[in-house]
Predict the structure of DNA polymerase I.
Amino acid sequence: MPDTPEDVSDDVTRPDRLFLVDGSGYIFRAYHSLPPMTRPDGTPVNAVLGFTNMLMKLLADMDAEHVAVIFDKGRRTFRTDLHPDYKGHRPEAPEDLVPQFPLIRDAVRAFNVACVELEGFEADDLIATYARQARDRGLAVTVVSSDKDLMQLVRDGVALFDPMKNRPIGPDEVHEKFGVGPDHVVDVQALAGDSSDNVPGVPGIGVKTAAQLITEYGDLETLLDRAGEIKQPKRRQNLTEYADQARLSRDLVRLRDDVDVPEPLSGFDVRPPEPEALRAFLVENGFKSVLARVEGDLIPKPEDGSAAAADPVAEAVQAEADYALVQDVETLRRWVAAAHEAGVVAVDTETDALSAMRGGLVGISLAVAPGQACYIPLAHVAGGTGQLALDGGDPAEAPRQIPLADCVAELKDLLLNPGVLKVGHNIKYDLHVLARVGLEVSPIDDTMVLSYVLDGTRLGQGTHGLDDLAKRHFDHAMIAFKDVCGSGKSQITFDTVTLKAALDYAAEDADYTLRLHRLFKPRLVEDRMVAVYETLDRPMVPLLTAMERAGIRVDPAVLKDLSKTFAARIGDLEDEIHRMAGHAFNIGSPKQLGEVLFDEMGLQAGRKSSKTGAKSTGADVLEDLAAQGHDLPARVLDWRQFSKLKSTYTDALVEDINPDTGRVHTTFGLTGTSTGRLSSNDPNLQNIPIRTEEGRRIREAFVAEPGHVLLSADYSQIELRLVAHVAGIKALKEAFDKGADIHAITASRMFGQPVEGMDPMLRRRAKAINFGIIYGISAFGLARQLSIPRGEAQAFIDAYFKEFPEILDYMEATKAEARQHGFVRTLFGRKCWTPGITDKNPTAKGLAERAAINAPIQGGAADIIKRAMIRVPGALTEAGLGARLLLQVHDELIFEVPEAEADDTAALVRRVMEGAATLSVPLVVDTGVAATWAGAH
């Protein structure tokens, strides 16, 4: 026993302490604490830096064994279900703050502090729940916040600390604020209401009056029951008339302390930061001053020669491969633990079919460091050659594997752990496969998307496959799928591959995915592409996954009826074409068609095919001949159109309907275009013709589920609006501001004709030039389009540039930018590469110049609709609407909407889309609602 009181440590008797930090309250104070600033890639970070400094100060000053930062998840909570107007008039977050929200969460994790949020509840509810749990376990709780709503939590064992005023808040401070003790704060707030949160309260009663009433009557319920005793007539009337409103207000302001919280208190232990994780965060965000402060304390200073050894890029290149087969749960647990420890894990799946929607899961591979990867077989079947040598058993018996349910149970927490980044190559495919066995994955990175954001089409189309990237960046030849499964008629499915072959192939995929991630992620900062990846393309991956999973319902009966109609029309056209030619021939044969047109009929051949040297019968040649008044080429064009509609759409789409869902599930591509536009494949739903009545009829087969409708939301003339904005064309901007007919205005200025009573042909010519300018149209192209002499077309273009000289300045400046850098940028920073811009071949150079002119416009439109798509699901959830986003077709979004919510959904979608970007001209969205896509568009 100590001899003197001085020998007794306070730590012997005081309880453990828990600090609960109101992270959402910190964010806006951090945002306003520093002037606007960006990191090298253009991403705003003033709030991130302010938050980081505040968090560091708190961690340095606090004396606690446990800490957690709690955030709001979204605007929609159980309170908005009770009162839809709750916080409804609060403005949207500043545009430059929105991309900082996820980075602020990253800051918390970088300091190895627990970061908690939960859909449907506010941060205050989680704080209240954790405070109750901790107090019940004997912990002393400090809530770090200046939010008055949290004052209701103050009691023995729970205190508030205002970090802005650097002062504790106890019962006395609560009484000073509300005129009552903490246990009656809710009653006072219920009466007084809160205009900032749209809590209605009782009219005519403020905080002071409410405190007097609660002090006199004891609590809200007693006051309302005895409202008839109130002497003041108006107050008595309001308390009686608005009693239910007061009770509703009480439910809105009272914090829930019984939330099923997502993280246990045991996960809140104070831990030192992982040095490399913290260093990576500070370096990525350009926080050099913070890094200098923590080096030597939280982060060891790099010693001479050690930096190269710890260089993640060097490690990615040099690491030797060491792959392991995982066939029991204990081994799997060791790999899962290693993934948790690493904080980043590459994930890849193997399936028994190529389709993401239909392929069954065969196995999963993981990589936790370059060269360290494993394969978990789950559904391999007996009989693979070499199985006996690997397993030590009979090859006719099933190979030793972990049961799927056990594997799912072991991986579930890892794949959803917000502190572990899951990396995939084209991870959208893996998300589909894993979801079908009950595994959701978040957060994610995608090395295919990273490669696309960094290099686009600089090295050619289709260069972001894993095999290509491994060869290009590591000079490593990946094991080809055909080397494992064969090809052609002898190809086998992956579930019949031996485990040895499966291990080498699958583990290598995960390994090199992780190596690419080590290589690409730092380049985002170096190439100033973080904002494009983090705010535009990465968020699209889970969004597109959900859209692909939803699919769209297609009525096969409509398609079959159209196929019959088209077949009859094709037959009639064949008869008509043969009659015109004077004999039967194969209309689909370019050779035979050429003989009929040029040898027998003596029509003038436009050009020869570059491949065969034969006279071309391409669409452009036939269109020229038809424009000259020749009927047979015109009928051949019709025949080709109906043949394509039938074979490519009405026949093929029936086969594309998933028998399990009755819906067609397209695959959206993020990496297939030079401008950031999405592509659609298997089937391509973006290419359904809409310029002909027959093509539009195909959309009649796309229908809503019973009780639902389809909503089409389409940007109006978005590319022309972008031209007006980026080129600063004053006249067009004024026309768009007034909502005028832009093509009529253009024609009026070019041809000196009043808009009223204008010849429709003049408007048509102006429209052709307006849209043609976007694509760098030539006099030759415009002449063909308008069926006018080339000289007249050139005169139109010259007149256009004279009337709108800003567009010519833009075009020249854009071409100069492309020549200087090899790329042009969209408004949002995306690089659109322009290979061929310095080509000595005039044709190739001209093509590249036209692409350069168009890319910022088309790419900017693609970025804007992505911004809208990313925002819409959250907005729908906050509004309590049940619509699902199904398709994106260039400037159009298609939703499936409960019929009763159609008007509200249309209004919300229009508002979100029109607010997706701030231009010098208004964005306008047209919406339509119907049972079919054709009717909605």
Q: What stands out?
A: The mean pLDDT is 87. The chain has five domains: 15-267, 271-301, 317-527, 559-661, 718-850. Residues 654 and 693 are 20 Å apart (CA to CA).
